[in-house]
Every structure is written in structure tokens, then in C-alpha cells.
Write a structure and sequence with these properties.
- The structure is a single chain.
- The chain is mostly helical.
- It has one domain.
- Helix content is about 75%, strand content about 0%.
Length: about 170
């Protein structure tokens, strides 16, 4: 796994040149490893997804391809893992970077996921808390641009965001 992670960081274009079948097979393996592997393997998977998503976002020729749309699947998985399921908190920084990159790359999908979650909780005592938490997470200038400053701000907001809402979301 570390070789693939290395390739995604140094030469992400090589992975993007894989045939659709091979690329989808790789992504299915990454998904399996994210959900069923030890911390080290999960960390490699997160790093791979971060590098690959950043590369695809910057390569205009890939923005409307199947390779770009795979990110929507991972955004949904991350959204559920971070907010509704359990994950190892020692991976917080790596999760944050991968999640942020996916959010920037798939903004409309992220907004749809947030709106669906808010709809599920409309009328509940936690609704306002959720709205405020999501506004604090991404409610800063250039929140949806893949830039160093925005990523740092997102990372700073990420831990308080999770602390604020994970407890009551995981309990429901």
C-alpha cells in the first residue's frame, strides 16, 4: 500500500492513466481498506485520496470524467465515518486533509449531504447546533478553495466541529 500511496503523491498522473476498470478496482480496494484495515493502512489510503483528489481537481481534462466522480462516493463514506460512525481519532489530521480536499472537489455533493443531515434533524433540539457547527467549519473566506491557508483554517475548525456534534449524532 505504501508504494501506491507514494505513486499518488509523486506521480498521481500515472494512477489517473489507468484504465477505468483498473482505476475502479483500485478505488474499491481503497474503500475496503478504509473501512476494514488497521490504522497504518487507513492512513495510506487517506493520503492517497488526498493526493489523487488534488491532482484530479487541478487537471481540467479529468474534471468531468469517471475518475472525478469517484470522489463523490468517498465524500459520502467520509461524511458517514466522521459524523455517524467511529474512527480512530489519531488519524484526525489525515482525515481532515482528505475530507477537506474532497469537499473542495465536490462542493455540491457536500452541500447536499449537509442539507440532508440538517433535514433529518429539523425540529430537533440539535438543529441549531448542527447549523452553527457546519457554518463554523466552512464559513470562512475561500473555504472551498484548495489553498494552504484555507486548508489550515479548515483543520483548525475541524476538531472543535467534531467535538461539538459527534456525541449527539453517534448516539441517535
Amino acid at each position: 500500500m505504501s508504494l501506491v500511496s507514494y505513486m499518488s503523491e509523486i506521480h498521481p498522473s500515472y494512477l489517473c492513466r489507468l484504465s477505468d476498470d483498473m482505476f475502479n478496482s483500485l478505488m474499491s480496494s481503497i474503500e475496503f481498506c478504509l473501512l476494514k484495515s488497521n490504522i497504518d493502512v487507513v492512513k495510506f489510503c487517506l493520503e492517497l485520496l488526498t493526493s489523487l483528489t488534488m491532482y484530479i481537481q487541478q487537471d481540467v481534462s479529468l474534471l468531468h470524467s469517471d475518475k472525478h466522480s469517484v470522489g463523490t462516493r468517498f465524500l459520502t463514506i467520509f461524511f458517514n465515518m466522521l459524523l455517524l460512525e467511529t474512527f480512530d481519532m489519531s488519524l484526525m489530521d489525515t482525515f481532515s486533509a482528505a475530507f477537506y480536499t474532497l469537499i473542495c472537489s465536490h462542493q455540491e455533493d457536500y452541500k447536499r449531504l449537509v442539507n440532508n443531515l440538517l433535514l433529518e434533524h429539523s425540529g430537533s433540539p440539535h438543529y441549531e447546533r448542527l447549523v452553527n457547527a457546519f457554518n463554523q467549519l466552512t464559513g470562512f473566506p475561500d473555504a472551498f478553495t484548495i489553498s494552504r491557508a484555507a486548508r489550515i483554517k479548515f483543520t483548525e475548525n475541524f476538531t472543535p466541529f467534531l467535538t461539538n456534534i459527534r456525541g449527539f449524532l453517534c448516539i441517535r
